[in-house]
Amino acid sequence: xxxxxxxxxxxxxxxxxxxxxxxxxxxxxxxxxxxxxxxxxxxxxxxxxxxxxxxxxxxxxxxxxxxxxxxxxxxxxxxxxxxxxxxxxxxxxxxxxxxxxxxxxxxxxxxxxxxxxxxxxxxxxxxxxxxxxxxxxxxxxxxxxxxxxxxxxxxxxxxxxxxxxxxxxxxxxxxxxxxxxxxxxxxxx
Amino acid sequence: xxxxxxxxxxxxxxxxxxxxxxxxxxxxxxxxxxxxxxxxxxxxxxxxxxxxxxxxxxxxxxxxxxxxxxxxxxxxxxxxxxxxxxxxxxxxxxxxxxxxxxxxxxxxxxxxxxxxxxxxxxxxxxxxxxxxxxxxxxxxxxxxxxxxxxxxxxxxxxxxxxxxxxxxxxxxxxxxxxxxxxxxxxxxx
Lengths: 189, 189
Prior knowledge:
- The structure is a homodimer.
- By secondary structure, chain A is of the alpha+beta class.
- Chain A has 5 helices and 14 strands.
- Chain A has helices spanning 64-72, 85-90, 101-105, 154-158, 161-168, and strands at 3-6, 23-24, 26-31, 37-42, 45-49, 54-60, 74-79, 109-110, 119-120, 125-137, 140-153, 171-175, 178-181, 186-187.
- Chain A has a 7-stranded antiparallel beta sheet.
């Protein structure tokens, strides 16, 4: 293997896009102080702390997702399957703040059990989160949220892990506007 | 879709393992103050900030990876392909701190260009990182690292994105000791 050194200014640069870094495609729902629902695709997300369950995701400060969380301190991470990839991507369009992207995308809001932002009906898993910690870097913010309630499709929950992924087909993004659905698993050695 | 509410105490609980949350399998190399190389598989990682490029990953404080970074403030994120999944998993075994997991796994250390911990020769991408920020939650720590140098296999770098993933086959973990290699991409709508 012949390696070369490359300059990396940003993960969003031409070089950054060439690094095989994977992120899970999720839809984050938030609500503004005026009660307008926002939904947006995010893919820089991780299980940051296992106990208590804390997720972290990265967002641009200019995005309504960040603005709503800074005001309302709550959000829902909705895990879509490949069956709704088109609707999910519809939420990533740049609509004015008063537009409910879920309606534009043909997705449906269901009231959450604990937080104000809604869950997305068409997503088999919904993780309701309360803001736990914020870390700012210029115009980017990493938002940590404590998962305070979880709802999951019963069939998905009862399935074996192989069937669970075959049913859900969650997606990872790979850069350059590509993604891969995860439906077939292998066992770690 | 019939949803049920489930209690989530921890992402590592039986319920936590059932959530289709994906994380990229990487190998983090560090070095102790005595110069002993450590390598360990991690999968809770994300591109936290795009500009400057900052990665974040989660680690248990009891792990040598965390202890070495707290002492030395540097690490390398090595991206393995499926061809070395067995060797990668060998590094996740619980060896004493004076053991070099790379040797146990049959992987090879190559000096880094900027940081003290080495790169792994068999990984097509190596991201050398300097500690940028730490966030502690009890016995878990989220480590943010600024990517200060990048090396990448030349064939991988020159390839189209489709070929790049076909060559590398990076992996995501899915819980329950399963993983999926990412080799076939689709275009986002």
